[in-house]
Design a protein that fits this description.
The chain is α+β, with helices and mostly antiparallel strands. It has helices at about 10-20, 55-60, 105-120, 130-135, 195-200; strands at about 1-5, 20-30, 30-40, 40-45, 45-50, 65-80, 85-95, 100, 140-145, 145-155, 170-175.
């Protein structure tokens, strides 16, 4: 699936981007390719990445070089009757473009809110907001979702017809990100209960 029209495919792209946690940012500097994993946040048709002003990746992207950003969700292992037809069920998005520095204070704060809410929904309203020093020490880059493609693989294995009679188990082993039991900070003040959004945390959209 490929599209330059965000509105046409917003459901497919948004579901994948909103469920993922890590993106991989690919770019080239001085003929040397780099692929860097990082967190991200989405606001409508824009993705935001952030980090220290000392980050080589962010400083490189600020020069206007082309970037390729990918997000992949692994949904299951597809076990076929033949080794050749083993596969994986997955959903992925690839975004192409150039990133720009977010200079507007309001947009920058909204991007940082999007980062926090993307990782743990409802968290932003409870924690302390970034102060002026923290905002100045953080670069935020914006990447428009104007050129992107999505790939999705679902369903059972597809064996050769003659292999369906083989005495071999075949099917799909589902995979998903599952939260474990929350561990409180040793310095947590007494009387602070575990938030409901932590108890019920899930990455499933």
């Amino acid at each position: 699936m490929q599209s330059r029209n965000w509105s046409v495919t917003i459901t497919v792209f948004a579901e994948i981007l909103d469920e993922g946690l890590i993106c991989h940012v690919g770019f080239i500097v001085d003929n040397q390719p780099f692929v860097i994993p990082t967190a991200y946040g989405r606001v409508e048709d824009r993705l935001y990445i952030h980090g220290s002003p000392a980050s080589r990746m962010l400083r490189s992207l600020l020069t206007g070089i082309e970037v390729c950003l990918t997000v992949t969700l692994l949904d299951g292992l597809v076990l076929a009757r033949s080794a050749f037809h083993h596969s994986m069920n997955y959903r992925s998005v690839v975004i192409f473009g150039t990133a720009t520095l977010v200079q507007d204070a309001g947009e920058k704060l909204e991007a940082l809110r999007a980062f926090t809410e993307h990782i743990v929904p409802e968290r932003w309203a409870e924690v302390r907001s970034p102060n002026r020093q923290e905002l100045q020490a953080t670069l935020v880059l914006s990447l428009p979702i104007t050129e992107a493609s999505a790939k999705v693989r679902t369903g059972p294995p597809l064996d050769d017809e003659e292999d369906y009679s083989l005495p071999v188990w075949a099917g799909v082993l589902p995979l998903q990100v599952v939260a474990g039991e929350a561990v409180a900070d040793p310095r947590l003040n007494t009387g602070i209960s575990l938030p409901d959004y932590v108890c019920k945390y899930t990455r499933v959209c």
